[in-house]
Amino acid sequence: MERATMNILVTLNSGYIPPLKVMLASLLAHNEEQVRVYILHHSLSAEELSQVQRVLGERGTVESVWVDDEMLAEAPVTDRYPREMYYRIFAARYLPEDLERVLYLDPDLVVNGPLNELYELELGDHYFAAASHVKGSMQKINEMRLEMEEPGPYINSGVMLMNLALLRREQDYDDVFRYIESHRKVLFLPDQDIISGLYSSRILPVDPYRYNMTERLFVLRPESDAWLDLDWVRANAAIIHYCGRNKPWREPYLGKLDVFFKEAQALLAIDQ
User: For residue 2, which phi and psi values (nearest 5 degrees)?
Assistant: First the structure.
């Protein structure tokens, strides 16, 4: 019986090829589907793309999509947030027209469980499905900072199911550039600020503990969440995301969730 195919999107430069390979090894280990990995990039070499294909082997294919990012020349970037982070906002423009949905995954995460329920979510009139890491007063601050027209979640853009079919019909690229220009002084995490600010009412929230678990969520859990230990994470968190400066491939790592990255890294070593 032929395996179903899961379409995955990543956007990155050469610096994130090593963690991307770990992420993909973990994806294959915990999911039965074939995978088609679309890589939006501006400067990856043929050898780097071949490295990624070797990780996938017979389980998947790499689709390289070169992006002319001249239109983003004036967009704010930093050493932590390069121009490639904006590509996901325009994914519907660059990906094949017959592709109706894609699951965007940051390369600095590992997959720890099946993603089919997330991938098959009914999106309705939502552009994205994604998790939020903020609530209460921080949510209100973000609503004011980004001038959200309608209340909605301030999301982490590292894991997003994207409704490409609807985005192609409705997304106005000029709206994005106007928003960047009018808010550039308050864009601290530019890509997710833009997505949350422009599209907050068209985002379907998903459970961060299951689909975007972070060290911060784990460490700052209240005492009432004593159930949230490493055993719970192993059994229930399908995605563990190492967002921020604290990365498990750099020393020193502060926290406990690096164990999942090390396990995924070991899988990659075995396969190669």
Answer: -70, 135
Provide the pLDDT for residue 56.
98
How does DSSP assign 86-140, residue by residue? GGGGGHHHHS-TT--EEEEE-SSEEE-S--HHHHT---TT-SEEEEE---THHHH
What structural domains and CATH numbers belong to the chain?
A: 5-271 (3.90.550.10)
Distance between CA atoms of residues 245 and 265, nearest Å: 19
What are the two backbone dihedrals, phi and then psi, of residue 44, each rounded to the nearest 5 degrees?
Answer: -70, 145
Cβ-based neighbours of 198, under 8 Å, separated by 6 or more: 175, 176, 179
Which residues in the chain show pLDDT less than 70?
Answer: 1-2, 74, 78-81, 222-224, 226, 270-272
How far is the CA of 54 from the CAs of 3, 16, 31, 201, 206, in angstroms?
A: 19, 16, 18, 40, 32
How does strand 60-66 pair with strand 101-105? unpaired
List the one residue out of 191, 18, 227 whose CA is nearest residue 88: 191
Structure tokens, 148: 């959200």
Angle between helices 17-30 and 46-56 (to 10 degrees): 20
Cβ 105 vs Cβ 10: under 8 Å: yes
Q: What is the predicted pLDDT for the residue at 271?
A: 59
Helix (H) or strand (E) holding 176: helix 173-183
Beta-strand runs (E) in 133-258: 155-163, 203-206, 239-241
CA dist 259 and 155 (Å) reads 25
Chain length of the chain: 272
Helices (H) and strands (E) in the chain, counts: 12, 9
pLDDT attached to residue 224: 61
Please answer whether residues 198 and 89 qualify as being in contact, where contact means their C-beta atoms are separated by less than 8 angstroms.
Answer: no
> Which residues have a Cβ under 8 Å from the Cβ of 251 and sit 6 or more positions away?
none
